[in-house]
């Protein structure tokens, strides 16, 4: 459903400058959960911005359901790491979740229903009248996820969405995400620095090297539903951790 072909991104006016993304190709299937691992600065965020249509590639193309992506597609939503910058502090939680729906042209009644359903899905039913700053960091990130879900995307792009929350909140958000991914039947592309998180969530893990190119790809054979304790105790989990650690460790540090 998502086809990335020979994607290349060079920042600035000089096309011969070192690329942030170079000749990157991969595909993501309908309802697949793909995690992307890669060292800092290897071009993961640049890649996501090109995939989302927020930035344009220097060469190559991205196709979503066989249509070339040239601007943010309506069926795509994003969740970024820094919820404090993605939520609007002067809007109550309910408005924060619903305002993209108004832009999409969804009627008031349908937008209200979608907002309440999404808040409920992330365990924030009844919190709609609070402001983001009245919530904990993990709850704010759940508001950002609710906003993406209310939008009813076919594809969800996530850029280190749980990096700024504590470990316990993080595992809760991982399980929440797996639950809504299955319930809403969406396709997820999830960037993380955390090997265990990638294995726990994904159907497939891609390891990038700088400039963003696929260094390693592995399918995760672990059964679903996954469980934070038993899944991580399986021998296959440990084997995958070693395999991915080696794939990441073998990379030269970015210049
Ligand atoms: N707007 C920009 N203008 C110029 N160069 C940029 C810009 N954004 C990113 N870069 C450069 O592109 C390269 C890739 O950056 P990018 O943020 O995509 O990496 P990343 O893998 O997401 O990093 P991290 O894991 O640290 O968030 C880096 O060398 C970075 O300095």
TrEMBL record:
UniProt keyword annotations, A-Z: ATP-binding, Nucleotide-binding, Transport
Record-linked SUPFAM superfamilies: P-loop containing nucleoside triphosphate hydrolases
Pfam families referenced in this protein's UniProt entry, alphabetically: ABC_tran (PF00005)
UniProt KW Nucleotide-binding keyword: yes
Keyword match Transport: yes
Molecular-function GO terms, alphabetical: ATP binding; ATP hydrolysis activity
SMART domains found in the cross-reference section: AAA
Regions crossing the membrane: none
Annotated ABC transporter domain residues: 2-235
Alphabetical list of PANTHER family matching this protein: ALIPHATIC SULFONATES IMPORT ATP-BINDING PROTEIN SSUB (PTHR42788:SF13), TAURINE IMPORT ATP-BINDING PROTEIN-RELATED (PTHR42788)
Designated name of the protein: NitT/TauT family transport system ATP-binding protein
Origin species: Tamaricihabitans halophyticus
């Amino acid at each position: 459903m998502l086809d990335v072909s020979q994607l290349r991104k060079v920042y600035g006016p000089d096309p011969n400058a070192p690329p942030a993304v170079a000749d990157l190709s991969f595909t993501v299937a309908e309802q697949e959960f793909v995690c992307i691992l890669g060292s800092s600065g290897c071009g993961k965020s640049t890649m996501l911005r090109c995939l989302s249509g927020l930035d344009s590639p220097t060469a190559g193309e991205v196709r979503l359901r066989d249509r070339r992506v040239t601007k943010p597609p309506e069926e795509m939503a994003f969740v970024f790491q820094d919820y404090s910058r993605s939520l609007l502090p002067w809007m109550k939680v309910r408005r924060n979740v619903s305002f993209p729906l108004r832009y999409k042209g969804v009627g008031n009644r349908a937008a209200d229903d979608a907002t309440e359903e999404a808040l409920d899905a992330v365990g924030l039913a009844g919190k709609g009248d609070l402001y983001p700053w009245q919530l904990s960091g993990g709850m704010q990130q759940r508001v950002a996820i609710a906003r993406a879900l209310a939008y009813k995307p076919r594809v969800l792009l996530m850029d280190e969405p749980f990096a700024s929350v504590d470990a316990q909140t993080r595992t809760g958000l991982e399980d929440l995400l797996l639950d809504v991914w299955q319930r809403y039947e969406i396709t997820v592309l999830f960037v993380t620095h955390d090997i265990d998180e990638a294995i726990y969530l994904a159907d497939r893990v891609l390891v990038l090297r700088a400039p963003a190119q696929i260094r390693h790809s592995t399918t995760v054979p672990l059964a679903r539903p996954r469980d934070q304790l038993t899944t991580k105790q399986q021998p296959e989990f440990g084997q995958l951790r070693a395999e991915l650690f080696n794939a990441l460790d073998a990379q030269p540090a970015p210049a």
